[in-house]
């Protein structure tokens, strides 16, 4: 049983467009959205279920299961580190700094405002429309991964999922390291006070090393010359320090208030999105990775559609001042480069075909000579050798690489997660 050719040729793209269009109806007509969304999901679920018994690549899916789980563990550990960093960069300077510090000048925001005056109103409304969000990109990738059931995408789907999650985890880790290195003022000055309950005043570190030298040019010049924090900070407020057991040291980074619960982990769960975790945009990273996966695995007109959605999301992030232009630009090229670097986990290229061609290239002269001599036994033996080398690569090559990847990933992330759970129970 094969999926109809018309659907194999573009059915996934049609399904993606239908999903985005039907979900957007919630902003246009809630009645039609409530009618059409269950129909669409029921149809997609039925065709997936009917295809499962005819799937031919369960063995490759099983080989990719462990790397996929390892990628998920790695992803969870990086999200934990990111959550700690998001809260820290907001808390260290206090709410007064966030509300009083003006946003950075952003020519990208100026350009969009200028275009509002030049473009037709209908075009501006399309640019302003909330067509797609973070959960849409994640769902589009899930649709892509499941399309292995219809031979629209190269199996294994779990291998594709492992690459997606591992690449995203690396991207989130690099993102957290980047934004925690230098704290930028939010493009929305009210953001911190609306989302976080942290002290109004800066942490003692900021009072000693930043506040005295933040605005006085002479003070900045002097600290550069002396390379020593010379200002007398005097008396300062003492932060509230809850009893979190072995994790109490996190109070210096998270700066909780007495009304925010009794556990550090509960504090992070309530944090949500940050305000100063700007360079680079996490939402744009997810969007770009989805577009890259779609382009490599499926291609066609639908990949152009996905990239148009990515560009629309980028200008909306800038237009609505969730991010500066630089945040979106950096996320785009970082996402592209990271995806290109992780092809060892899963690739749309046919490695077996490449292995056969490589073997044929090596025996080309022998094969030609055997044909000239009409030695059919030699020709048959050489072709069997080519086929055996391809099967050997399929059995050993990819599986060894995947197991190595799984081992390294588990080693770097599972220990972090286990320690986090241990510390949580101790606290």
Automatic annotation (TrEMBL):
Give this protein's Gene Ontology molecular function annotations.
ceramide cholinephosphotransferase activity; sphingomyelin synthase activity
* Residues spanning the membrane: 6-26, 38-58, 64-84, 285-310, 330-348, 401-423
Boundaries of every Sphingomyelin synthase-like domain copy: 274-341
Membrane topology, as annotated? Multi-pass membrane protein
Query: What are the GO cellular component annotations?
Result: endoplasmic reticulum membrane; Golgi membrane; plasma membrane
Instruction: Give the domain of life.
Output: Eukaryota
Q: Which family does it belong to?
A: Belongs to the sphingomyelin synthase family.
> What is this protein's record name?
Sphingomyelin synthase-like domain-containing protein
């Amino acid at each position: 049983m094969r999926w109809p050719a018309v659907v194999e040729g573009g059915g996934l793209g049609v399904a993606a467009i239908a999903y985005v269009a039907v979900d957007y109806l919630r902003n246009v007509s809630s009645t039609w959205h409530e009618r059409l969304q269950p129909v669409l999901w029921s149809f997609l679920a039925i065709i997936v279920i009917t295809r499962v018994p005819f799937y031919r690549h369960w063995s490759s899916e099983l080989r990719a299961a462990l790397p996929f789980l390892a990628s998920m563990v790695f992803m969870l550990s990086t999200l934990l580190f990111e959550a700690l960093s998001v809260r820290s960069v907001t808390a260290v300077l206090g709410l007064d700094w966030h509300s009083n510090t003006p946003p950075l000048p952003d020519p990208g925001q100026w350009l969009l405002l200028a275009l509002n005056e030049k473009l037709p109103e209908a075009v501006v409304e399309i640019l302003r429309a909330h067509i797609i969000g973070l959960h849409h990109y994640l769902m589009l990738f899930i649709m892509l991964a499941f399309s292995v059931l219809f031979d629209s995408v190269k199996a294994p789907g779990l291998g594709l999922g492992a690459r997606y999650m591992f690449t995203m985890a690396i991207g989130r880790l690099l993102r957290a390291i980047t934004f925690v290195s230098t704290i930028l003022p939010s493009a929305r000055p009210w953001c911190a006070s609306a989302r976080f309950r942290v002290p109004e005043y800066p942490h003692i570190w900021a009072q000693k090393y930043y506040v005295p030298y933040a605005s006085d040019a002479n003070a900045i010049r002097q600290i550069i010359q002396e390379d020593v924090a010379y200002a007398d900070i005097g008396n300062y407020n003492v932060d509230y320090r809850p009893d979190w057991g072995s994790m109490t040291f996190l109070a210096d980074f998270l700066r909780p208030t007495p009304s925010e619960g009794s556990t550090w982990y509960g504090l992070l769960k309530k944090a949500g999105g940050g305000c100063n975790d700007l360079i680079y945009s996490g939402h744009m990273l997810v969007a770009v990775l989805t577009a890259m996966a779609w382009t490599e695995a499926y291609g066609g007109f639908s990949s152009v559609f996905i990239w148009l959605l990515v560009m629309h999301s980028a200008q909306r992030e800038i237009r609505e001042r969730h991010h500066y232009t630089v945040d979106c630009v950096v996320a785009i090229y970082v996402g592209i480069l990271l995806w290109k670097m992780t092809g060892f986990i899963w690739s749309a290229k046919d490695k077996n075909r490449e292995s056969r061609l490589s073997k044929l290239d090596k025996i080309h002269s022998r094969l030609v000579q055997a044909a000239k001599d009409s030695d059919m036994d030699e020709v048959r033996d050489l072709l069997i050798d080519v086929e055996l080398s391809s099967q050997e690569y399929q059995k050993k090559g990819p599986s060894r690489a995947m197991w190595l990847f799984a081992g390294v990933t588990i080693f770097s992330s599972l220990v972090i997660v286990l320690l986090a759970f241990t510390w949580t129970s101790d606290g």
